[in-house]
């Protein structure tokens, strides 16, 4: 099953996004919080993200959702640290973090492929709110 990593500058925000998204899950999936820094500050940490990727990997791939620009840079750096085999199975979604995570969790929990999970997350950009 595809794993998901949530990278926010806030550990608490990432956890709440995960909690909310898991309400939509149809089965148990690995959704790992890689928000904030190890010492509890706001920010992102490539090593923390790399560890989260490794924890969430189930050989079907890992999708990373990010909140702001520097989170993308940290996620890309984390991917660079991975071994070549895992690196091939990790994607970063260009998606809104809340709606994208809900969509990704829903798709991953029914056994969708990594590309399908990424596409679902990215399609969340198009959801109208009114």
UniProtKB/TrEMBL annotation:
SUPFAM superfamilies: PTS system fructose IIA component-like (SSF53062). The keyword Kinase applies. InterPro entries: DhaM, DhaM_N, PTS_EIIA_man-typ, PTS_EIIA_man-typ_sf. Keywords: Kinase, Transferase. It catalyses: dihydroxyacetone + phosphoenolpyruvate = dihydroxyacetone phosphate + pyruvate. Residues 1-130 form the PTS EIIA type-4 domain. GO terms for molecular function: phosphoenolpyruvate-glycerone phosphotransferase activity. Pfam families: EIIA-man (PF03610). Its EC number is 2.7.1.121. NCBIfam families: dha_pts (TIGR02364). Component of the dihydroxyacetone kinase complex, which is responsible for the phosphoenolpyruvate (PEP)-dependent phosphorylation of dihydroxyacetone. DhaM serves as the phosphoryl donor. Is phosphorylated by phosphoenolpyruvate in an EI- and HPr-dependent reaction, and a phosphorelay system on histidine residues finally leads to phosphoryl transfer to DhaL and dihydroxyacetone. Homodimer. The dihydroxyacetone kinase complex is composed of a homodimer of DhaM, a homodimer of DhaK and the subunit DhaL. This is phosphoenolpyruvate--glycerone phosphotransferase. The gene is dhaM.
